[in-house]
Amino acid sequence: MNTSTLSANLRRLRSAKGLSQVALAKRAGVSLHTYRNIEVHGRPPEQTSTLGRLAAALGSNTAELMMYVRPLRAVRFRDGG
Fold first, then answer.
1. Which residues, 6+ apart, have CB-to-CB distance to 21 below 8 Å?
2. CATH for 3-65, options being 3.40.1160.10, 1.10.260.40, 1.10.472.10, 3.40.50.1820
C-alpha cells in the first residue's frame, strides 16, 4: 500500500473539515498514536476497520480515502496443493 498517498488523502480530508488530528482520532474512536502512525509516519493501519472508522468520521467513504493508493508490490498466493 502506498501509504504516502493515504497520508495525503487523510490530511486533505481532515483539513477540509477543519479538524485537528486529536479531534479526528477521537471522532473515529482510534488512538492518537494510531492516527499519527498513519498520517504522519505513513504506516498502514493494523486493522482495515480503522480505515472505515476514519472515513465515517470524515463524512466520507473508504473509496475516497484510498483514492490513488496502490499496492507497493504484487502479492501472490500459493494454492494448497
1. 14, 32, 35, 36, 39
2. 1.10.260.40
Helix (H) or strand (E) holding 80: none
Predicted confidence pLDDT, tens digits, the chain (81 residues): 555 788 999 999 999 999 999 999 999 999 999 999 999 998 888 888 999 999 999 999 988 888 877 665 555 556 654
Q: Please state the pTM of the whole predicted model.
A: 0.79
What CA–CA distance (Å, rounded) separates 11 from 62? 14
Q: Which three cell numbers stand for residue 28?
A: 473515529
